[in-house]
Amino acid sequence: MPGVMVAPMRRLVSAVVRSPLPFAGVAYLLVRWAQVAGVEPARFPDSTGWLTLDLWGSNDRFWPVPLVFGLAGSDTVRVLAHVVLGAAAWTWLASSVSPMTKWPRTAMLAVFAVGLAPQVTRWDLAILGESLSITALVALIAASLRLARGASGPLPWFAMLVVFGLVRPTHLVVLAPVTAWFIASAVRSRGARHVVPAVLLGAATIWGVALVRGNDATSRLNVYTVIANDVIVDDSRFAWWVERGMPAPEGLRDAVGYDFAGDLPPDLAAIVALPTGQQPPAVIRAGGTELAEWVRDNGTVVQARWVLSHPRDAWRSVSSRAHQVLSPPNDDFLPLDVRGVPLRAVFADWRIWAAAWLAGSLAAFVRGGRRREGRMLALSGAALAALLVVTMNFSGIEHQRHAATVAVGVRVLGLVGLAMIVPGGRLSADDEDADEPGARTRRGGPRRRGRGRTSRPTRRGTRE
Cβ atoms within 10 A of the Cβ of 143, count? Predict the structure, then answer.
């Protein structure tokens, strides 16, 4: 009997050695599920809004997360969906990063190690949007990397860009500039190559803007949190807002904390129209109907004007919170306990990962072998920075939670940056072509057999 088992075990070991990624992906899925299996899913006051699906018009939340939650049906299945979709995204990322280095197995294990950090997996237990937002970002970076390397076509990238761009209102800061670039390219070239994606992305962006307009209850609440935590505590900022018409009744600057929604006067509650499950900041009651009407009509516009006209102050609000939100010292800000592997240290300080991202971006351009991946890495970092600026300036509370997606994104770009620094691996198709003799005259044309860098016939066969 022992002899009977030897051959199958050898074949299994040989299969794992030859193609470790599928087995590692399954192992990652099982370990991630083991961290949350049997733990009670966590609901919070705003969880209810994530369960309401509205594809157009008035909405509590943008549709991707409510769609997944609606299909799942129960909180236990929603947690399982978090785990399965997250495992698929991190496995896709590992398959995209590992071919870039001469140590693909090490790169694969590094990706999965970061993906098992509790700063990633703890969100699986929350009936909120963070877990799926992180998953969408990881999948978008994987799709972007594969597109830059020529390993896949543009369709997966377009799909993940649209999904990520419509997970939260703030994500439109990533989708809208890409749409604008494609529209400008289509106007210049007038070719179907740019016109079709410009039309599709334009439609997705219009959809997102319509959802933002229908999401005004959440937008108003965010303005109130900014007033409560950033405006009334700063004399110069408070004076600037008052000059732009914000009412300042007596007692407004003394309002702290939160009230209960049922304690608001009916006429005030009707104007504020709190999102489902949310409690009102005390400034709502202190400001009365006059402030409520002003916030409804002008609040978001004035906040946007302040950010645009005070870039230093807007950046200061990011830099002063950056370490706290990108490398939170603990998880006390939201009680979510996951079992399992002690990989918290792998998440490390965000500045280390940012340095790896920067070094990888520079290495891609200096070496000249991976310029497409370098552009992708640099632009992705810029997009994350823009997302962090918007997130920190358009909400006054729960910054650690709202920045969780960016925090994970910094680590993912750092992993890609490390793969860029380490020599070896396979170049993208365009960079291989650029190293061929005559590439300048044949750019965009078909490759000639036997003239590339990757192999050459010899007397002993093919040399890699």
Answer: 25
Q: What is the pTM of this model?
A: 0.84
As separate numbers, helices (DSSP H) first and strands (DSSP E) second, the chain gives: 24, 2
Q: Report how far residue 369's alpha carbon sits from residue 149's, in angstroms, rounded to the nearest whole number.
A: 11
Q: What is the DSSP letter of 228?
A: I
Token pair belonging to 114: 């970061």
Backbone angles phi, psi at 42, to 5 degrees: -105, 125
Token output for 404? 């969780």
Q: Render 276-339 in DSSP notation, one character per residue.
A: TTPPPBHHHHHHHHHHHHHIIIIIHHHHHHHHHH-HHHHHHHHHTTHHHHHS-S-STTS-----
Whether the Cβ atoms of residue 276 and residue 47 lie closer than 8 Å to each other: no
CA–CA separation, 44 vs 37, rounded Å?
19
DSSP letters along 29-87, please? Answer: HHHHHHHHTTSPPB--TTTGGGG---SSSS-SS-SHHHHHHHHH-SHHHHHHHHHHHHH
Residue where the block lists tokens 């994987």: 142
pLDDT along the chain (464 residues), means of 10: 55 58 91 89 86 80 92 92 96 92 90 92 91 96 91 88 93 93 84 80 92 83 88 90 90 85 85 82 88 90 91 88 84 69 82 94 81 90 93 82 92 93 61 40 40 40 37
Residues with Cβ within 8 Å of residue 428, at least 6 apart in sequence: 148, 149, 150, 151, 370, 372, 373
The CA distance from 252 to 270, in Å, is 20
